[in-house]
Structure formats: C-alpha cells, structure tokens
Design brief:
With about 290 residues, the protein is α+β, with helices and mostly antiparallel strands. It has 9 helices and 13 strands. Strands 1, 2, 3, 4, 5, 6, 7, 8, 9, 10, 11, 12 and 13 form a 13-stranded mixed beta sheet that branches. The protein binds coenzyme A (COA). Its EC number is 2.3.1.-.
Length: about 290
C-alpha cells in the first residue's frame, strides 16, 4: 500500500497488532538496523526469549512497529525496542503498542529508558523521568588495574552464586531479574567481589551489538564496582566495548580515559517510584544490562 503526504494511513484498517513471534525477528532487526542501533539478530532473539512482544504489521505482512517487554517478578516489568518505521510514525502506532503492553501488565510498575524521540509518547502513557543513562563505547585503550581493598578478592562467578547475586540485584533495582541473570551466566562471563562478609558486588560481560558489553555491574559502592569495570575493560583491550551507566561523573571520566567515549544518553522513566532504601549497605547499579532490559 502506498502512502503519500496528502493521504495519511488509516490505522484501524491498515495495521494489525499481534504478539511477536520468532519469525518476526528478522524484520524487527531490520527496523533497528535502519535506526543504526547496534543489536544483532542474536540480541533480538535473546531479548524475545526472555520476554514477550507485540508487532504492528501492514496487510502484506511487513512489520512496521515493535515493542518488547519483560516481567521481572509479579509487580514490575520493563519495556524496550519500541520502534515504528519512519513511514508510519505519527499515526498512533506507538501509542497503540504501548496500550497493548500496559493491558498485558495490569498493575505492574513499568520501567524503560527513553530516547528523546520516545519521551513525549511515554509521558502521555503515564511515565515520568527519574534520571539519565549515559551510553559510553569505543575501542578500549590501555586500562590500569584498580585494586580492591584488603581482604576482598575478585573471582569468576559459579552456579552456586546465583541466589546471592539475584538477591543483590533485587535489592539494587527492586526487580526480580533472576531469569535474566541465569541467562547471562549461561551466555556471558560473570565475576564477583567477595570477602569474609560475603558478596560485595557482581558483574557480567557478554557479546552484544558491535562487540562486547559489560553490565549489569551491581556493588555496595564504587570501591568494588570500579575494579570490576576496569577488569572488564582490560579483558576487552583493543576491542569494541559498550557500557551504559547511570549519570556519574567519576565513572564517566574513567571511561573517557580508557577510550570509551560518551556517545549519547537516554532518560530513565517509570510509571511509579519505588521507596528509597536508606540502609547504608544497600547495593547500587553502576551499569545497566542494556538500555532495553534495564
Ligand atoms: C518514538 C516512536 C516509537 C513513537 O511512535 P509513533 O507511532 O510515531 O507515535 P504515535 O503516533 O503513537 O504518537 C503517540 C503520541 O506521542 C506524541 N508524539 C510522538 N512523537 C512525538 C514527538 N516527536 N514530539 C511530540 N509528540 C510526539 C504524539 O503526538 C501522540 O500523542 P497524541 O496521541 O496525544 O497526539 C517512534 O517515533 C520511533 O520509532 N522513533 C524512533 C525509535 C525510537 O527512538 N524509539 C523509542 C525508543 S525508547
């Protein structure tokens, strides 16, 4: 069906909305490639395997809109990969995809990271901003080791650590991302920092997009997070590495020095705030898993 500037498409007669199927992923991938987003087909496959999605299709079966969402426990979920092809933007496709996802997640607290193009849509869908996520990436140059405090050690993660890292992740993000962390253990490399007192931080590095990505990095404080970040950057020396961090000038400054320059930012948005944990030992997320998965 052809569209011209003088004959805008009529959404309800020309577009069908349905659940995303694995067969849709090649076309979904094309939509993200057209935006110069770095995701590989494998990244889309992994994201759909962990969650659910909707697509908007035209009468000839072309996928012109996508939205993925992930349930993290029974009360919270995140959304991402919300894309409408340029020819169909501004005709309510994004709004309808959001409405379908919200219907599928009744009563859930929703999280997403919004591009500037997405912010108006999400504000109209009941989201408000909570902060900024900075995207750093590049070919890693030399990275000095950052030592851990005495009595702490960094070691590879093992299957027996899953329960402890899930608990730490949940304390930091207020999301039950056990399924994601299990998948990262299988597909990526994980390390943690521990001491006699227990686990003080954990992190992952995996293949993603144009090279490697590190995240999530969760730790009790920077003393434990920065050595893990330096470790991953060191293991990726000479390779392309991406890291998405909540706004933090110390971490951003180090990444810049290592050749991982800030190339963009997104706005973190939620439908509902969680209560701040004021206990001194509450862990913090220093790097996201990805902008889509949070
Ligand atoms: C963001 C995006 C998904 C929006 O989809 P869309 O189908 O064009 O949006 P809709 O037509 O459903 O618009 C929904 C609402 O947002 C508003 N809106 C959308 N884009 C807007 C913009 N750039 N500025 C102001 N308002 C905007 C619309 O006016 C509409 O509100 P209304 O119903 O009250 O008029 C689409 O522009 C897109 O794919 N952009 C590129 C990829 C991207 O950045 N995705 C977001 C990732 S987080």
């Amino acid at each position: 069906m052809t569209q011209t500037a003088t004959s805008p498409p009529v959404l309800h007669t020309q577009i069908t909305f349905r659940s995303m199927q694995p067969e849709d992923l090649a076309q979904a991938w094309q939509l993200s490639k057209d935006l110069a987003w770095p995701h590989r087909l494998e990244d889309w496959e992994q994201m759909l395997a962990l969650g659910n999605g909707f697509v908007a299709t035209t009468a000839d079966g072309s996928v012109v809109g996508t939205l993925l969402w992930w349930q993290w426990g029974t009360q919270a979920a995140s959304m991402g990969m919300i894309i409408v092809s340029p020819a169909w933007q501004g005709h309510g496709v994004g709004k309808h995809l959001m409405a379908l996802a919200r219907q599928a997640l009744p009563g859930y607290r929703l999280h997403l990271n919004a591009t500037s193009a997405g912010v108006p849509l999400y504000e109209k869908s009941g989201f408000h901003s909570t902060g900024v996520v900075m995207q750093h990436q590049g070919n890693v140059s030399t990275v000095p080791l950052i030592p851990l405090p005495e009595g702490c050690r960094m070691r590879p993660m093992g299957a027996a650590d899953l329960g402890a890292i899930c608990a730490m992740d949940q304390a930091a993000l207020k999301l039950d991302r056990s399924a994601l962390l299990l998948r990262l253990m299988e597909d990526g490399r994980g390390i943690l920092v521990d001491s006699e007192k227990g686990i003080l931080g954990f992190s992952f590095c995996r293949k993603f997009g144009w090279g490697q990505a590190t995240g999530p990095i969760v730790a009790l404080d920077q003393t434990f997070a920065l050595p893990m970040l330096a470790y991953w950057a060191g293991t990726c020396a000479g390779q392309f590495l991406r890291v998405d961090i909540p706004q933090d000038e110390t971490v951003a400054g180090l990444l810049d020095q290592w050749g991982l320059l800030r190339v963009g930012s997104v706005v973190s948005m939620v439908t509902e705030e969680t209560e701040n944990d004021t206990s001194a030992q509450s862990p913090t997320c220093f790097a996201l898993c990805s902008q889509a998965l949070c």
